[in-house]
Amino acid sequence: MTAAGGSAPVRPDTPSPRHAVESTGTRLRTRLALGVLGAALSALVAPAAGAAPTVQAPTVQAPTVQAPTVQAPTVQAASASDEQALAERYAPVVRLVQQAEDCGRGEPFQPTDVDVLLGNTTVALRGPWDTDDLVKIAPLADDLGKGLAGYHLDFPGSPLQPGCTYEEWADTQTLGSSPTTYARVVTEPGEDGLALQYWLYYPFNDFNNKHESDWEMIQVEFAAADAATALQQEPTRVGFSQHEGVEIARWDDPKLEVAEDSHPVVHPAAGSHANYFDAALHLGRSGQQGFGCDDTRAPSVDVRPAVVLVPSDASEAGATFPWLSYTGRWGQRESSFYNGPTGPNTKDQWTAPLTWTDAEGTDTAYAVPASGLYGTEATSAFCGIVSSGSNALRGAMNNPAIAAAALVALGLVMAWLAGRTTWRPSAPLRLARRRSTGQVISAVWRLYTRRLALFVGIGLPITVAMVLPGLASAWIVSTTEAFGDDGTMRRTIVTVTGLLLALLAPATVALGQAAAVVAVREIDGGRRVGVSRAYSVASPRAIPLLLTQLAIGVALVACLVTVVLAPVAVVLFVVSLLLVPVVVLEGLSGWAAVRRSAHLVRPSWVKVVVLVGLTAGLAYGVGAVLGAVLILTTSLPLAVSNAVSGFVYAALAPLVAVSSVYIYADVVVREKLATGAARDGELPAEAMLP
User: Fold this and answer.
1) Are 33 and 39 in contact (CB under 8 A)?
2) How far apart are CA 265 and CA 257, in angstroms?
3) How many Å apart are CA 399 and CA 404, to the nearest integer?
4) Nearest-CA neighbor of 398 among 272, 214, 271, 210?
5) Are residues 194 and 60 located together in one domain of the fold?
6) Residue 413 CB: number of other CB atoms within 10 A?
7) Is the separation of the CB atoms in 346 and 340 below 8 Å?
8) pLDDT tens profile 329-352
9) Is residue 5 part of a domain?
10) Which of 296, 403, 571, 644 registers the highest number of CB atoms within 10 A of its CB?
11) Cα–Cα distance, 96 to 270 (Å, whole number)
12) Which among 94, 84, 118 has a CA at the least distance from the CA of 228?
């Protein structure tokens, strides 16, 4: 075998090292037999010759017994060079999510050389076990080589409040070092095959379970007994570690991207470093998958870590890399999943790599499917809920007394607000009457539940318009492959279609809102109304409403872009909250409608904001939260959870428009009564209806 790669086959007429040892053993047995026979003959003739000591077998044995020990280093050297060649050939391409600015979105950490931590005066060793006593500053590899189960390494900063601390610290410590991966060729007793592992170390895990240090692994498997044989083959499969699990793929699986015929491309998720086969938003809802959303989406940057080979022999590996014997934690001691992780040598895949992929391997990760906007996207709600919940939990664990006080204060405020309003009578009909905040909520809910089929029917087109752009875009991207390599044509089709579909959603929402307002007015007038009639009567006002809303949207964006005019954007948004009933019921449009809405909102803006906020939160949030709960508590496909979320949104989408009608009626009546308008005859009696 060649020293560099072992690709040259062994010549048939050249004995292998094993055959050389066997031949030496045969010669040894022959010489021993002759020696014993000679000793016996010498004993018979000893009185005459007196020369027996000069022909003792031990003098023959001494040089021949050493033959196997001379051969062993040659075998080991050849194996090590084969392992190095194998590790270099299949070294991964690490495609990190690009970070455009410091402390911004993306991955700030690279696979790091562990040597930057050793003898580093910014690193402390603490312990033992359940204490944080300082054992040593700048621990060395030999210190960690003692095992130290239950001890902890400690870096500057707090994982519960990381801020930019770890990113800035890591940038300083890794300056001048190269990205590194630790390769290891290993077999498993009782299992056929060979595993080539690449261990990647990151200084910080910036996921929902934030903690100092992170170890991840890539495994390439062969149907071979040693590295020399593996060099003659292609791998059989690969495994990418993902939190507590592993996703596997055959070497010829289309989902596996291979660079330069042999280097697997891996996509670590920003923050968590869980390894994926593609660029997407991946969802996890268990310990195996991770709990939350892993983002591997572009833009990205490719990193090719330097390969450092860990010897296969355990004693040699421990002597070369003493820190591999460390069984303590690689990060600051914290409660639960915020605790620092243990090292590679404590993982199941370290000693049983092939059994690990067989038992834990899954064929696919859960990529978030194309979906819609607002309440129709259960998966986005899931990502947001888990992320927000994790942040809240970290804050509570870091300041438990403050968190408890905040919860108590929130409960008291909610109880106070509920007690400050009047809830009855809650007569839903006779719109033109004054109502308290609680009465508006009760009246809206009663009307809505009584005519649920009507309002669900009005909401269905809105839901379709919200979901359609995402589904259509996914379909277009997949079907335009028929255009071959003409990327320009494909991008043009996707862009034009996307713009057209993007206009469909706000147009349908405007028409649906107008239809809901018409439905309330018709019901209050005692006239029969269905979904088709509501849309038919509302259609003339849909275009003025859409144009007015688009104008408001442009003005809001313009104000927000300047930053300094952000307060103006907030005011403009608030005074436009009654725009829908003003346009539909009063026939105004454009800035005239905006001025009228502002005139109505101004005297009771707190009440208007509270009521619109409550109904909008209910309409847009319940479906998304329900879908997220299904994701958390069931094994339903993500598409089903999104569909349930969309249906709930369809049922509640018109609720905002209905609520705006009741708020509008309340402020209009108060305006007329305040200006001395005729109170008898023009306005219905403000009395409880049967």
Assistant:
1) no
2) 5
3) 9
4) 210
5) no
6) 10
7) no
8) 999 998 878 899 999 999 999 999
9) no
10) 296
11) 7
12) 84
* Assigned domain for 368 exists: no
Are the CB atoms for 300 and 279 separated by under 8 Å?
yes
| Residues 182, 34 share a domain | no
Element (H, E) at 308: strand 306-310
Residue 141, classed as helix, strand or coil, is: helix
Residue type, 83: E
Is the domain of 284 the same as that of 426? no
Residue that finishes a domain, picked among 335, 362, 389:
362
Q: Return the pLDDT at 419.
A: 72
Predicted confidence at residue 469, as pLDDT, reads 60
CA distance 474 to 494: 9
- Give SS3 for 142: helix
**pLDDT recorded at residue 6:** 38
Q: Using CA of residue 75, residue 81, residue 83, residue 89, what is the dihedral sign?
A: negative
User: In terms of domains, do 182 and 288 share one?
Assistant: yes
The residue assigned the tokens 């007329």 is 672
Q: Does residue 543 share a domain with residue 513?
A: yes
Burial class from Cβ neighbours inside 10 Å (0-12, 13-18, 19+) for residue 328 reads buried
Tell me, yes or no, whether 627 and 567 share the same domain. Answer: yes
Counting DSSP H helices and E strands in the chain, the numbers are: 21, 17
Cβ burial 81-102 (10 Å sphere, 16+ → b, else e): bbbbbbbbbbbbbbbbbebeee
Q: Which residues contact 217 (CB under 8 A, 6 or more apart)?
A: 197, 198, 199, 200, 241, 275, 344, 347, 349
Give a yes or no: residue 245 inside a domain: yes
Number of structural domains found in the chain: 3
Type of residue numbered 639: A
Does 608 fall in a domain?
yes
Which residues in 118-261 belong to E strands, given as ranges? 124-126, 134-137, 152-154, 180-186, 194-205, 211-222, 237-242, 245-250, 258-259
Query: Looking at residue 626, what is its pLDDT?
Result: 80
Q: How far is CA 109 from the centre of its chain?
A: 16
pLDDT value of position 36 = 41
Find the helix or strand (DSSP H, E) in which 267 lies: strand 263-268
Write down the pLDDT at residue 454.
92
Q: Would you say the C-alpha torsion 344, 346, 348, 352 has a positive or negative sign?
A: positive
Residue that terminates a domain, selected from 342, 362, 382: 362
pLDDT at position 618 is 82
Q: Are 340 and 211 in contact (CB under 8 A)?
A: yes
Q: Are residues 398 and 426 in the same domain?
A: yes
Buried b (16+ CB within 10 A) or exposed e, 500-523: ebeeebeebbbbbbbbbbbbbbbb
pLDDT, position 286: 58
Are 404 and 538 in a shared domain?
yes
pTM passes above 0.85? no
Residues 660, 577 contacting (CB under 8 angstroms): yes
Please give the Cα distance from 307 to 478 (Å, whole number): 37
In 3D space, the residue among 113, 173, 157, 116 whose CA is nearest the CA of residue 139 turns out to be: 116
Low-confidence ranges of the chain (pLDDT < 50): 1-77, 370-376, 481-482, 485, 677-690
Classify residue 350 by burial, with Cβ atoms within 10 Å: 0-12, 13-18, 19+. Answer: middle
* 108, two tokens: 């700030």
Amino acid at 291: F
Rounded-to-integer distance, Cα 494 and Cα 638, Å: 25
| Distance in angstroms (rounded) separating the CA atoms of residues 648 and 459 | 10
pLDDT of residue 19: 37
Are 89 and 111 spatial neighbours (Cβ–Cβ below 8 Å)?
A: no
